[in-house]
Amino acid sequence: MLPYSDEQKMIKEMVRKLAKEKIEPLVEELDKKGEGPGKARDILIEHGLLKLPLPQEYGGVDADCTTVAIVVEELARVDGGISMDVFGAGTFVFFVKNFGSEAQKKKFYPMLEAGKLGAFCLTEPGYGSDAAHIITKAVRDDGHYVVNGTKTMASNGPLSEYYLLYVRTGPGEGASGISCLLFEKVPGVSAGKHFDKLGFRTSPTSELYFEDVKVPVDCVLGKEGDGWKTLVFGGGAMRVFGASSQALGNAQGAMEYAIKYAKERKTFGVPLIQHQAIQFMFAEMGMNIEAARSLHFRTLQMIDGGNYSQTEYELLTSSTKAFVCDMAMKVATDAVQILGAYGVMNEYPVAKRMRDAKVNQIFDGASQIQKMIVGRALSKLY
Ligand SMILES: Cc1cc2nc3c(=O)[nH]c(=O)nc-3n(C[C@H](O)[C@H](O)[C@H](O)COP(=O)(O)OP(=O)(O)OC[C@H]3O[C@@H](n4cnc5c(N)ncnc54)[C@H](O)[C@@H]3O)c2cc1C
Predict the structure, then answer these.
(1) Would you state the pLDDT for residue 141?
(2) Which fold has domain 227-381?
(3) Is the CB of 128 under 6 A from ligand 1?
(4) Overall pTM surpassing 0.90 (yes/no)
(5) Distance, CA 124 to ligand 1 centroid (Å)?
(6) Which residue in 170, 199, 225, 297 has its CB near the most CB atoms, within 10 A?
């Protein structure tokens, strides 16, 4: 066990039990439907899991990134998509805590406390990895911004009641002309139908349209033109307590299922697990999961401890995202291999784990983009 605090250990145990007993039985049906977390979201809200990172006066426990990561990992041990709401709530609180004004905290914390969902809107149809070139525009007009543009792949897009929206305000080109706006749903915002996806089918994803949306200028998070700064800092943390935690939980769940299966299934007269080639596959899985867990924890401790240089922050957050998510894809693929033909049947859960692992390698900055950031950081350091 990693050196978690007593409170973190208690939360971990509670969420593991909840996920196993109440959420796992819902997953197969929800995955088949592909329309979102359904009743599972009510369970998360009922147990206060979306509120954890909020300050105590808003019903939370001021959970740090390590604690949010624990909850996401334990939920993803049964299903990554269902952990998306905890990841989303953690993201909003992280951005508001670090960049929000007192007025923004007073406005948005109660919405989070009430379990209302928001959408993080960066990706556009023409710009995903190349986020510095987004074209959604916010133009100042008499104390307001008028926003026009289309965002895509927004998790919880169809259900969102507030938005963290990256827009181009200028001055400056590329990253230097980007601002981040935080506002409640207003006329002019609408959602497209949710996408039918390969993985993360228990989390809805859609386009969001912003047509002549009028929002007051004080909805800027931080300062105008600081959007990229919020994205580099917030995005780094999100990748770790979000996608990496999901990948870690998913890999652990895939390995555990494959081990149980390999103890039951016999080939050539003995249980599959007694074949050395299969034992070595499990050894690789176990070693890689533990290596990933150590890096993941180290990075979370760095974020929560706050003692790092910018280069170290980028090196460790991006290394963790790429390493853990790529590791999970390999583990899930090997778990499918160990189940043989049953592995590719949707009624066995490892196929879903492989589909979900692929999503984690792509969202929140794909593995290739993380490696570009790691490469850049290394060349600054050495
Ligand atoms: C389920 C899901 C949920 C999501 N939720 C959100 C959300 O809530 N909010 C949001 O804003 N976005 C969200 N996204 C979008 C996600 O963050 C982007 O899909 C991701 O950043 C990659 O962008 P892209 O899909 O446009 O790929 P592209 O940028 O088109 O890249 C395509 C591929 O090429 C690779 N590539 C691109 N450029 C280079 C390069 N220079 N060198 C080497 N390889 C390169 C990429 O790694 C990728 O594999 C979500 C995506 C998914 C699948």
Answers:
(1) 94
(2) Butyryl-CoA Dehydrogenase, subunit A; domain 3 (1.20.140)
(3) yes
(4) yes
(5) 10
(6) 199
